[in-house]
Design brief:
Keywords: Membrane, Transmembrane, Transmembrane helix. InterPro entries: YkvI-like. This is Transporter. The structure is a single chain. By secondary structure, the chain is mostly helical. It has a single domain, classed as Hydantoin permease (Orthogonal Bundle), CATH 1.10.4160. It has 14 helices and two strands. The chain has a two-stranded antiparallel sheet. A hairpin with a 2-residue loop joins strand 1 and strand 2. Helix 1 crosses helix 9 and helix 12 crosses helix 13. The longest helix is centred in the N-terminal third of the chain and has 33 residues. It is globular and about 60 Å long.
Length: 373
Protein backbone atom coordinates (compact mmCIF):
# COMPACT_ATOMS: atom_id res chain seq x y z
CA UNK A 1 0.00 0.00 0.00
CA UNK A 2 2.82 2.39 0.87
CA UNK A 3 4.46 1.70 -2.51
CA UNK A 4 1.21 2.37 -4.40
CA UNK A 5 0.64 5.64 -2.52
CA UNK A 6 4.19 6.76 -3.28
CA UNK A 7 3.71 5.90 -6.97
CA UNK A 8 0.57 8.04 -7.15
CA UNK A 9 2.29 10.90 -5.31
CA UNK A 10 5.13 10.81 -7.84
CA UNK A 11 2.67 10.72 -10.76
CA UNK A 12 0.63 13.60 -9.37
CA UNK A 13 3.75 15.66 -8.65
CA UNK A 14 4.96 15.02 -12.19
CA UNK A 15 1.65 16.25 -13.60
CA UNK A 16 1.41 19.19 -11.19
CA UNK A 17 4.94 20.35 -12.03
CA UNK A 18 4.29 20.28 -15.79
CA UNK A 19 0.85 21.87 -15.62
CA UNK A 20 1.32 25.57 -14.97
CA UNK A 21 -0.26 28.87 -15.96
CA UNK A 22 0.10 28.43 -19.73
CA UNK A 23 -1.38 24.93 -19.65
CA UNK A 24 -4.24 25.89 -17.35
CA UNK A 25 -5.31 28.89 -19.42
CA UNK A 26 -5.16 26.87 -22.64
CA UNK A 27 -2.66 29.17 -24.35
CA UNK A 28 0.13 26.56 -24.48
CA UNK A 29 -2.15 23.87 -25.89
CA UNK A 30 -3.61 26.25 -28.45
CA UNK A 31 -0.15 27.42 -29.55
CA UNK A 32 1.64 24.06 -29.67
CA UNK A 33 -1.17 21.73 -30.75
CA UNK A 34 -4.72 22.92 -31.57
CA UNK A 35 -3.74 25.50 -34.18
CA UNK A 36 -2.17 22.71 -36.26
CA UNK A 37 -5.59 21.24 -36.95
CA UNK A 38 -5.90 17.53 -37.72
CA UNK A 39 -2.22 16.94 -36.90
CA UNK A 40 -2.82 17.88 -33.25
CA UNK A 41 -4.04 14.46 -32.08
CA UNK A 42 -0.94 12.72 -33.46
CA UNK A 43 1.43 15.35 -32.10
CA UNK A 44 -0.23 15.12 -28.67
CA UNK A 45 0.31 11.35 -28.82
CA UNK A 46 4.00 11.93 -29.65
CA UNK A 47 4.32 14.39 -26.78
CA UNK A 48 2.68 11.92 -24.39
CA UNK A 49 5.14 9.17 -25.38
CA UNK A 50 8.04 11.55 -24.83
CA UNK A 51 6.70 12.62 -21.43
CA UNK A 52 6.43 8.97 -20.38
CA UNK A 53 9.82 7.92 -21.77
CA UNK A 54 12.02 10.93 -20.96
CA UNK A 55 10.34 11.79 -17.65
CA UNK A 56 10.74 8.24 -16.39
CA UNK A 57 14.30 8.01 -17.70
CA UNK A 58 15.28 11.29 -16.02
CA UNK A 59 13.95 10.19 -12.63
CA UNK A 60 15.50 6.71 -12.80
CA UNK A 61 18.91 8.04 -13.83
CA UNK A 62 18.74 10.72 -11.11
CA UNK A 63 18.10 8.04 -8.49
CA UNK A 64 20.84 5.73 -9.76
CA UNK A 65 23.54 8.43 -9.83
CA UNK A 66 22.22 9.81 -6.50
CA UNK A 67 21.80 13.34 -7.88
CA UNK A 68 20.82 15.76 -5.14
CA UNK A 69 19.87 18.54 -7.58
CA UNK A 70 19.37 19.14 -11.27
CA UNK A 71 22.93 20.49 -11.39
CA UNK A 72 24.26 17.04 -10.46
CA UNK A 73 22.04 15.60 -13.18
CA UNK A 74 23.23 18.06 -15.84
CA UNK A 75 26.85 17.38 -14.93
CA UNK A 76 26.15 13.71 -15.52
CA UNK A 77 24.67 14.49 -18.96
CA UNK A 78 27.14 17.09 -20.21
CA UNK A 79 30.23 16.84 -18.01
CA UNK A 80 31.44 19.08 -15.19
CA UNK A 81 32.03 22.37 -17.00
CA UNK A 82 29.21 22.37 -19.56
CA UNK A 83 26.75 20.84 -17.09
CA UNK A 84 27.53 23.48 -14.48
CA UNK A 85 27.09 26.30 -17.04
CA UNK A 86 23.77 24.90 -18.27
CA UNK A 87 22.56 24.58 -14.68
CA UNK A 88 23.41 28.22 -13.97
CA UNK A 89 21.45 29.35 -17.01
CA UNK A 90 18.59 27.03 -16.04
CA UNK A 91 18.55 28.59 -12.58
CA UNK A 92 18.23 32.09 -14.05
CA UNK A 93 15.37 30.96 -16.30
CA UNK A 94 13.63 29.16 -13.43
CA UNK A 95 13.77 32.30 -11.30
CA UNK A 96 12.36 34.28 -14.22
CA UNK A 97 9.58 31.77 -14.82
CA UNK A 98 8.80 31.68 -11.09
CA UNK A 99 8.38 35.44 -11.28
CA UNK A 100 5.99 34.94 -14.19
CA UNK A 101 3.99 32.45 -12.13
CA UNK A 102 3.85 34.87 -9.23
CA UNK A 103 2.75 37.71 -11.52
CA UNK A 104 0.03 35.45 -12.92
CA UNK A 105 -1.24 34.69 -9.41
CA UNK A 106 -1.37 38.42 -8.66
CA UNK A 107 -3.33 39.02 -11.88
CA UNK A 108 -5.93 36.40 -10.86
CA UNK A 109 -6.52 38.12 -7.52
CA UNK A 110 -6.79 41.50 -9.23
CA UNK A 111 -8.95 40.62 -12.24
CA UNK A 112 -11.27 37.96 -10.82
CA UNK A 113 -11.45 38.58 -7.07
CA UNK A 114 -11.30 42.37 -7.07
CA UNK A 115 -8.30 42.41 -4.71
CA UNK A 116 -5.09 44.38 -5.08
CA UNK A 117 -2.35 42.87 -7.27
CA UNK A 118 0.15 43.05 -4.39
CA UNK A 119 -2.28 41.22 -2.10
CA UNK A 120 -2.28 38.26 -4.48
CA UNK A 121 1.51 38.21 -4.55
CA UNK A 122 1.86 38.30 -0.77
CA UNK A 123 -0.76 35.59 -0.18
CA UNK A 124 0.98 33.33 -2.73
CA UNK A 125 4.41 33.94 -1.17
CA UNK A 126 3.22 33.26 2.38
CA UNK A 127 1.45 30.06 1.35
CA UNK A 128 4.53 28.88 -0.55
CA UNK A 129 6.85 29.65 2.35
CA UNK A 130 4.88 27.62 4.89
CA UNK A 131 4.45 24.71 2.46
CA UNK A 132 8.16 24.66 1.57
CA UNK A 133 9.06 24.36 5.25
CA UNK A 134 7.78 20.78 4.93
CA UNK A 135 10.22 20.01 2.12
CA UNK A 136 9.52 17.50 -0.63
CA UNK A 137 6.74 15.84 1.40
CA UNK A 138 4.75 19.08 1.33
CA UNK A 139 5.01 19.24 -2.46
CA UNK A 140 3.91 15.59 -2.80
CA UNK A 141 0.92 16.12 -0.52
CA UNK A 142 -0.16 19.32 -2.24
CA UNK A 143 -0.14 17.74 -5.69
CA UNK A 144 -2.03 14.73 -4.34
CA UNK A 145 -4.94 17.12 -3.77
CA UNK A 146 -4.60 19.52 -6.70
CA UNK A 147 -4.00 17.06 -9.57
CA UNK A 148 -7.07 14.83 -8.96
CA UNK A 149 -9.15 18.03 -9.09
CA UNK A 150 -7.52 18.94 -12.42
CA UNK A 151 -8.23 15.49 -13.85
CA UNK A 152 -11.85 15.69 -12.66
CA UNK A 153 -12.32 19.06 -14.36
CA UNK A 154 -10.85 17.60 -17.57
CA UNK A 155 -13.48 14.84 -17.45
CA UNK A 156 -16.27 17.39 -16.91
CA UNK A 157 -15.04 19.40 -19.91
CA UNK A 158 -14.91 16.27 -22.11
CA UNK A 159 -18.44 15.15 -21.19
CA UNK A 160 -19.81 18.66 -21.77
CA UNK A 161 -18.08 18.97 -25.17
CA UNK A 162 -19.69 15.74 -26.37
CA UNK A 163 -23.08 17.44 -26.03
CA UNK A 164 -22.39 20.39 -28.33
CA UNK A 165 -22.29 20.59 -32.15
CA UNK A 166 -18.83 20.27 -33.63
CA UNK A 167 -17.53 17.86 -31.00
CA UNK A 168 -15.87 15.71 -33.65
CA UNK A 169 -14.06 18.58 -35.35
CA UNK A 170 -10.81 17.87 -33.50
CA UNK A 171 -10.10 15.06 -35.99
CA UNK A 172 -10.78 17.08 -39.16
CA UNK A 173 -9.70 20.67 -38.47
CA UNK A 174 -8.06 22.40 -41.43
CA UNK A 175 -4.39 23.25 -41.12
CA UNK A 176 -2.75 26.02 -43.11
CA UNK A 177 0.55 25.84 -41.21
CA UNK A 178 3.72 23.99 -42.16
CA UNK A 179 4.09 20.28 -41.52
CA UNK A 180 7.56 20.94 -40.10
CA UNK A 181 6.10 23.36 -37.53
CA UNK A 182 3.40 20.87 -36.58
CA UNK A 183 5.91 18.15 -35.71
CA UNK A 184 8.49 20.44 -34.12
CA UNK A 185 5.89 21.80 -31.68
CA UNK A 186 5.49 18.65 -29.54
CA UNK A 187 9.28 18.27 -29.38
CA UNK A 188 9.75 21.86 -28.19
CA UNK A 189 6.80 21.65 -25.81
CA UNK A 190 7.96 18.44 -24.16
CA UNK A 191 11.61 19.49 -23.97
CA UNK A 192 10.79 22.87 -22.47
CA UNK A 193 8.50 21.47 -19.80
CA UNK A 194 10.85 18.63 -18.85
CA UNK A 195 13.74 21.08 -18.68
CA UNK A 196 11.70 23.05 -16.15
CA UNK A 197 10.41 20.00 -14.28
CA UNK A 198 13.89 18.59 -13.57
CA UNK A 199 14.20 21.12 -10.73
CA UNK A 200 11.79 19.08 -8.60
CA UNK A 201 11.74 15.64 -10.29
CA UNK A 202 15.48 15.05 -9.78
CA UNK A 203 15.58 15.64 -5.98
CA UNK A 204 12.26 13.79 -5.62
CA UNK A 205 13.74 10.78 -7.42
CA UNK A 206 16.86 10.89 -5.25
CA UNK A 207 14.72 10.49 -2.12
CA UNK A 208 12.51 7.69 -3.47
CA UNK A 209 13.28 4.28 -2.00
CA UNK A 210 11.94 2.02 -4.75
CA UNK A 211 12.83 2.46 -8.41
CA UNK A 212 9.60 0.73 -9.37
CA UNK A 213 7.64 3.64 -7.89
CA UNK A 214 9.53 6.05 -10.15
CA UNK A 215 8.91 3.93 -13.25
CA UNK A 216 5.18 3.59 -12.67
CA UNK A 217 4.95 7.18 -11.44
CA UNK A 218 6.53 8.34 -14.71
CA UNK A 219 4.21 6.18 -16.79
CA UNK A 220 1.05 7.27 -14.98
CA UNK A 221 2.17 10.90 -14.81
CA UNK A 222 3.07 11.09 -18.50
CA UNK A 223 -0.23 9.43 -19.44
CA UNK A 224 -2.12 11.88 -17.23
CA UNK A 225 -0.44 14.83 -18.94
CA UNK A 226 -1.40 13.40 -22.33
CA UNK A 227 -5.00 12.93 -21.17
CA UNK A 228 -5.27 16.54 -20.04
CA UNK A 229 -3.73 17.74 -23.31
CA UNK A 230 -6.25 15.82 -25.40
CA UNK A 231 -9.16 16.93 -23.18
CA UNK A 232 -8.27 20.62 -23.60
CA UNK A 233 -7.63 20.21 -27.34
CA UNK A 234 -10.94 18.37 -27.77
CA UNK A 235 -12.83 21.19 -26.05
CA UNK A 236 -11.06 24.06 -27.82
CA UNK A 237 -11.31 22.45 -31.25
CA UNK A 238 -15.10 22.59 -31.02
CA UNK A 239 -14.83 26.38 -30.67
CA UNK A 240 -12.30 27.01 -33.45
CA UNK A 241 -11.51 29.50 -34.92
CA UNK A 242 -13.40 31.88 -32.62
CA UNK A 243 -11.53 30.73 -29.52
CA UNK A 244 -8.26 32.15 -30.91
CA UNK A 245 -9.31 35.67 -29.91
CA UNK A 246 -9.49 34.86 -26.18
CA UNK A 247 -6.62 35.66 -23.79
CA UNK A 248 -7.68 32.67 -21.64
CA UNK A 249 -9.20 30.14 -24.09
CA UNK A 250 -10.12 27.54 -21.46
CA UNK A 251 -11.77 30.26 -19.40
CA UNK A 252 -14.24 30.92 -22.20
CA UNK A 253 -15.18 27.23 -22.13
CA UNK A 254 -15.53 27.21 -18.34
CA UNK A 255 -17.97 30.16 -18.55
CA UNK A 256 -20.41 28.00 -20.53
CA UNK A 257 -20.42 25.35 -17.79
CA UNK A 258 -22.01 27.57 -15.15
CA UNK A 259 -20.91 29.61 -12.17
CA UNK A 260 -19.86 26.67 -9.99
CA UNK A 261 -17.55 25.12 -12.61
CA UNK A 262 -16.22 28.56 -13.53
CA UNK A 263 -15.31 29.21 -9.88
CA UNK A 264 -13.65 25.79 -9.56
CA UNK A 265 -11.72 26.44 -12.78
CA UNK A 266 -10.51 29.81 -11.47
CA UNK A 267 -9.38 28.18 -8.24
CA UNK A 268 -7.57 25.45 -10.18
CA UNK A 269 -5.71 27.98 -12.32
CA UNK A 270 -4.39 29.56 -9.14
CA UNK A 271 -3.52 26.17 -7.61
CA UNK A 272 -1.72 25.08 -10.79
CA UNK A 273 0.31 28.28 -10.76
CA UNK A 274 0.93 27.82 -7.05
CA UNK A 275 2.07 24.19 -7.37
CA UNK A 276 4.52 25.01 -10.17
CA UNK A 277 5.88 28.01 -8.27
CA UNK A 278 6.46 25.97 -5.11
CA UNK A 279 8.12 23.12 -7.00
CA UNK A 280 10.50 25.41 -8.90
CA UNK A 281 11.48 27.40 -5.79
CA UNK A 282 12.26 24.12 -4.04
CA UNK A 283 14.44 22.89 -6.93
CA UNK A 284 16.41 26.12 -7.22
CA UNK A 285 16.91 26.25 -3.44
CA UNK A 286 18.35 22.71 -3.48
CA UNK A 287 20.80 23.69 -6.21
CA UNK A 288 21.86 26.94 -4.48
CA UNK A 289 22.43 25.10 -1.22
CA UNK A 290 25.16 23.12 -3.00
CA UNK A 291 26.79 26.31 -4.26
CA UNK A 292 26.42 28.68 -1.31
CA UNK A 293 27.35 28.31 2.38
CA UNK A 294 23.79 29.19 3.38
CA UNK A 295 20.93 27.18 4.87
CA UNK A 296 17.74 26.40 2.99
CA UNK A 297 15.83 28.41 5.60
CA UNK A 298 17.65 31.53 4.35
CA UNK A 299 17.90 30.70 0.63
CA UNK A 300 14.15 30.10 0.19
CA UNK A 301 12.93 33.54 1.39
CA UNK A 302 15.73 35.24 -0.57
CA UNK A 303 14.57 33.50 -3.75
CA UNK A 304 11.00 34.54 -3.05
CA UNK A 305 12.09 38.14 -2.56
CA UNK A 306 13.86 38.12 -5.94
CA UNK A 307 10.76 36.66 -7.60
CA UNK A 308 8.60 39.29 -5.92
CA UNK A 309 10.76 42.11 -7.24
CA UNK A 310 10.82 40.67 -10.77
CA UNK A 311 7.05 40.11 -10.75
CA UNK A 312 6.53 43.88 -10.60
CA UNK A 313 7.40 44.01 -14.32
CA UNK A 314 4.21 42.15 -15.21
CA UNK A 315 3.30 38.80 -16.76
CA UNK A 316 3.60 39.40 -20.52
CA UNK A 317 6.93 41.23 -20.62
CA UNK A 318 8.68 38.54 -18.58
CA UNK A 319 7.09 35.76 -20.61
CA UNK A 320 8.38 37.15 -23.91
CA UNK A 321 11.99 37.35 -22.67
CA UNK A 322 12.60 34.03 -20.92
CA UNK A 323 10.53 31.40 -22.72
CA UNK A 324 12.03 31.52 -26.26
CA UNK A 325 15.63 31.45 -24.98
CA UNK A 326 15.07 28.41 -22.81
CA UNK A 327 13.13 26.58 -25.54
CA UNK A 328 16.17 26.00 -27.76
CA UNK A 329 18.39 24.96 -24.86
CA UNK A 330 15.74 22.55 -23.63
CA UNK A 331 15.61 20.81 -27.00
CA UNK A 332 19.38 20.21 -26.87
CA UNK A 333 19.00 18.98 -23.28
CA UNK A 334 16.20 16.54 -24.25
CA UNK A 335 18.21 15.10 -27.17
CA UNK A 336 21.17 14.58 -24.85
CA UNK A 337 18.93 12.84 -22.31
CA UNK A 338 17.50 10.64 -25.07
CA UNK A 339 20.99 9.55 -26.11
CA UNK A 340 22.35 9.07 -22.58
CA UNK A 341 22.39 5.39 -21.49
CA UNK A 342 20.51 4.32 -18.40
CA UNK A 343 22.93 4.24 -15.48
CA UNK A 344 23.36 0.97 -13.62
CA UNK A 345 21.43 0.64 -10.34
CA UNK A 346 23.44 1.37 -7.17
CA UNK A 347 24.89 -1.81 -5.69
CA UNK A 348 25.04 -3.74 -8.96
CA UNK A 349 28.25 -5.17 -10.33
CA UNK A 350 28.37 -2.49 -13.01
CA UNK A 351 27.45 0.57 -10.99
CA UNK A 352 30.40 1.07 -8.71
CA UNK A 353 32.98 3.52 -10.00
CA UNK A 354 34.21 1.07 -12.61
CA UNK A 355 32.69 -1.59 -14.82
CA UNK A 356 34.42 -4.56 -16.33
CA UNK A 357 33.96 -5.53 -19.95
CA UNK A 358 36.08 -8.42 -21.14
CA UNK A 359 39.64 -7.72 -20.09
CA UNK A 360 39.25 -3.93 -20.02
CA UNK A 361 38.11 -1.55 -17.33
CA UNK A 362 36.05 1.50 -18.26
CA UNK A 363 36.19 4.19 -15.57
CA UNK A 364 33.05 6.01 -14.61
CA UNK A 365 33.64 9.45 -13.14
CA UNK A 366 31.53 9.96 -10.02
CA UNK A 367 29.43 13.03 -9.49
CA UNK A 368 31.19 15.35 -7.10
CA UNK A 369 29.49 17.98 -5.02
CA UNK A 370 31.54 20.91 -3.90
CA UNK A 371 30.61 24.02 -2.04
CA UNK A 372 31.78 27.13 -3.83
CA UNK A 373 32.60 30.15 -1.76
Amino acid sequence: MKSHVRTLQIAFTYIGTIVGAGFATGQEILKFFTRYGHWAVLTILLSTILFIWLGTKMMVIARRIEAESYEDFNRHLFGEQVGSTISLFTMVVLIGVNSIMLAGAGAIFQEHLGLHYQTGLIITLLGSYFLLKRGISGILQMNSIVVPLMLTLSLIIIFNTFQIPGAGRFLFLDNDRSLFGAWMSPLLYTAFNLGMAQAVLVPMARHTEEEKSLVWGGIIGGTGIGFMLIAAHFAMSSQMPGILKFEIPMGSIAVRLGTVVQTIYLLLIFLEIFSTFVADIYGVAVQLKQRLPLSTALITPLLMLICYLLSQFGFSSLLSVFYPIFGGLSLVWAVKLLRTPWSSPPGSNTSSNSKEKGNSIVSVKPITRTTRK
